[in-house]
Amino acid sequence: MKFRIEKYSDALLEDWEKLNLNVKNSSFLSSIHWLNFKKKRGANIDLYLVYLNERIVGLLPIEIFRRKIAKYAYSAYSPVLDLVDEDLEDFYKSFKRFCNEYIKKNSLNLFRFDPLLDVSKRPLLEKLEYKKSLSPAQAIDTWVMDISGEEEELFMKIKKDTRYYIRRAEKNGIKIVKASNKDKVAEFGELMKETTLRKGFGNYNSEYYIDQWNELSSKGLCSIYLAKFEDKAISGALINHYKDTANYSHGASTSDYELMKLSSPYLLHWEIIKDMRSKDINKYNFWGVLPDNVSKSHNMYGLSMFKKKFPGELVSYVGAYEFAPGLKGLINRVSDYFSYKKERY
């Protein structure tokens, strides 16, 4: 079986987007609209198409990152493939050769990728001697809620205490506002800044959210919502919707302990779910959660438990793998081992 991986050209835009829309193992992260947004913000992105004979069977968006001691390629939730399981081994053999050539051509330490393959495919990647990444990438374990059906029935499927918090937030006077201008997006950016200072994790600046909303909301890929109390934003969410799924990509909340008691995030997500249903979206992906066996001391534990208060299904992927040849690859992996110890589980 002969696979070729060749450079994308704009003449093939329709083919790219058609494949991304039609295959199961794809997301907004491999949409041309998302990739163009990243390029406009200065990301170093290469795009490739995968051919089997003369048929396009895959997409490969690549971003090159530079760090203090590393320069590496990363393909987020990719490669995106229109292949049956029986063909995956042949493809990933070819892909390994491509990774090796790409690393040499661009003087990289390694090539990292995390395809939307079911977790059961890990043995295949390990058989081909890809290494499990020691650095965090996209969510491995996600919590996906089916939001189709009648609204009243859907509400009753939500846990009793969660329904209580939704109603309590309404009684507390919380109002949910969908961003319709730059000022409201900037409010979300400031709330994100407050959240990351409290939680101690990295984040984007307000301009990132404004640019994303400006670029993608008109294309149907981005919406931002705020929960307000007496005209003050106290929680918010950025949703990337694509195909039949809404993805909870970023969330923010107030650091004011008294305002936290108002239960605004519960109402926020319920109102988002109702709005997504009106767009004929039938899945709400709460994004990353922790498996049940992870310690309560993990910094994601509280957020993970909050997401699981809504009815859903745990959907797990293989996670990030790497082709990291030679000394430079080893140095990068040793650095990742120590840098991200607290984030792994």
Outline of this structure?
38% of the residues lie in helices and 26% in strands. The chain has helices at 13-22, 32-40, 88-106, 122-127, 151-157, 160-171, 182-199, 206-216, 257-260, 264-277, 301-307, 326-339; strands at residues 3-7, 45-52, 55-66, 71-75, 80-81, 110-113, 131-132, 141-146, 175-178, 223-229, 232-242, 245-253, 283-288, 313-316, 321-323.
Please characterize this protein's 3D structure:
The chain is of the alpha+beta class. It folds into 2 domains: 163 residues, Aminopeptidase (3-Layer(aba) Sandwich); 175 residues, Gcn5-related N-acetyltransferase (GNAT) (Aminopeptidase, 3-Layer(aba) Sandwich), CATH 3.40.630. It is 38% helix and 26% strand. It is built from 12 helices and 15 strands. Strands 1, 2, 3, 4, 5, 6, 7 and 15 form an 8-stranded mixed β-sheet that branches. Strands 9-10-11-12-13-8-14 form a 7-stranded mixed β-sheet, with helices on both faces. A hairpin with a 2-residue loop joins strand 2 and strand 3. Helix 6 packs across helix 10 and helix 7 packs across helix 8. The longest helix has 19 residues. It is globular, with a radius of gyration of 21 Å.
Principal-axis shape: globular
| DSSP strand count | 15
Largest sheet: 8 strands, mixed
CATH architecture of the largest domain: 3-Layer(aba) Sandwich
CATH superfamily of the largest domain: Gcn5-related N-acetyltransferase (GNAT)
End-to-end span in angstroms? 37 Å
Mean pLDDT: 94
Instruction: Flag low-confidence runs.
Output: none
What is the string of SSEs from the N terminus onward?
EHHEEEEHEHEEHHEHHEEEHHEHEEH
Strand content: 25-35%
Which structural class fits the helix and strand makeup? alpha+beta
Helix content: 25-40%
Number of helices: 12
CATH topology of the largest domain: Aminopeptidase
User: What is the CATH class designation of the largest domain?
Assistant: Alpha Beta
What is the radius of gyration? 21 Å
The quaternary state of the protein chains shown equals single chain
